[in-house]
Amino acid sequence: MTSKELLTLLNQALASELQVSVQYVAQHVMWRGVHGFAVQGELMSIAKTEMGHYEKLAERIFYLGENPTTQPATIVVGNSLKEMIEQDIKDEESAITLYKQIVAQATLEQDITTAFIVKQILEDEESHHDTFTTLNEDL
């Protein structure tokens, strides 16, 4: 049986995935200039990946007997390109920390399927973090 703690962590991750999906689409729309032109497609691609994470996590939460949240965490778009990327780096770092917690909790509870799903998502989040830290070097 899945603990309330694991389900809470999963729903927290779900709220975060909703948040960054909306945030990255908004940033995609707001980016301007040479830098904006170069990364708009990347932001949209990452937003779509994050929405896919939402779907995987929502399906897992529902399978485990809980209703998945539909409320995003607080969305912070930023007012400049630098602010946007710095916020995105923070959000990806928070996601990485949270997903490591979820893997540890799922492993403790011997929920190998949840741990497997989250490890896959964690790989994407680390890649997103790398993308944003690389973009930040050029701003």
Summarize the entry for a quick read.
With 139 residues, this protein is mainly alpha-helical. It is built from four helices and no strands. 81% of the residues lie in helices and 0% in strands.
Give a written overview of the molecule:
The longest helix is centred in the middle third of the chain and has 31 residues, at 33-63. The chain has four helices and no strands. The protein is mainly alpha-helical and 139 residues long. The chain has helices at residues 4-30, 33-63, 81-108, 112-137. The relative contact order is 0.18. It has one domain (4-137): Up-down Bundle (Ferritin), CATH 1.20.1260. It starts with a helix and ends with a helix. It is elongated and about 50 Å long.
- Principal-axis shape equals elongated
Mean pLDDT: 95
Number of strands: 0
CATH superfamily: Ferritin, core subunit, four-helix bundle
The percent range for helix content is: over 70%
- State the assembly state of the protein chains: single chain
Order of helices and strands: HHHH
Q: Measured on Cα atoms, how large is the radius of gyration?
A: 15 Å
CATH topology: Ferritin
> In CATH terms, what is the architecture?
Up-down Bundle
Structural classification:
mainly alpha
What is the domain tally? 1
Given as residue ranges, the uncertain stretches (5+ residues, pLDDT < 50) are none
Measured between the Cα atoms of the first and last residue, the distance is: 48 Å
Continuous helix count = 4
Report strand %: under 5%
Q: How would you sum up the major sheet?
A: none
CATH classification class: Mainly Alpha
